[in-house]
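Annotated sample (chain length 253).
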Amino acid sequence: MTESCENEVVAQLVEFRRRAADYARRDGHIPPDEAFFAEMNAQVVANAEQYYRSMFAGRVSSWNLRDSHMTNTIEAIVDHLRRRGRAGKVVVWEHNSHLGDARATEMGRSGEHNVGQLIRQRHGDDARLIGFMTYQGSVTAASDWDAPAERKRVKEGMLGSYELLFHQFAIPSFLLPLRGNPAAAPLEEQRLERAIGVIYAPRTERTSHYFFADLPRQFDAVIHFDTTRAVEPLERWELVHTQEMPETYPWTL
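Output written by the structure step:
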């Protein structure tokens, strides 16, 4: 709630780029990867100032800023690799809520966009959005922000959900292509879809974790595991937590 430092942050980023360019013109040697890492770190600071300030104004604004930053980072990495002759395919591992096209969900109707939507808009058929779904099993998640991780039982998919529909196929696991697949047409009727992230609240599952979606428009394909098993941490003993507030406080994004 204090005065914005956006101008100073942006000025610092511009100064960094100018100094790097001047140094390179004077035959100074800057390792390409190190220069890129430094510039991206400076960009994070510039975007973070706007992001955290927007969190006081509303959820949609901060969500859009965050996913735009993620998308621009992907593009910057691709451009950096291309300049170094290392262009290739890029695999982005994120939560379904970030990778599925937001325009096919309640998120889009409320004014939110995400990485999947932006990448699809920029790259068209060169992009493939793949979602993961499950009907039941276990998950490693917390009960609240900054709370310890727990092994939780995932409740069976709700009535009217894609999860229940896929369970009724009676196939333990499968890949379902959606793009250009005539057999996927019946799935275009909007159904509930579950999203479990850092937090899982079974008691309020409908309001906390379900939203309406049009699956064939949201993803190019989905991978369904009827029963999933919780991720087990490599570190068996809990590490000491910092006393900092969660990055997305006070919004549970």
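Annotation: The two ends are 21 Å apart (CA to CA).
Annotation: Residues 59-83 form the longest helix (25 residues).
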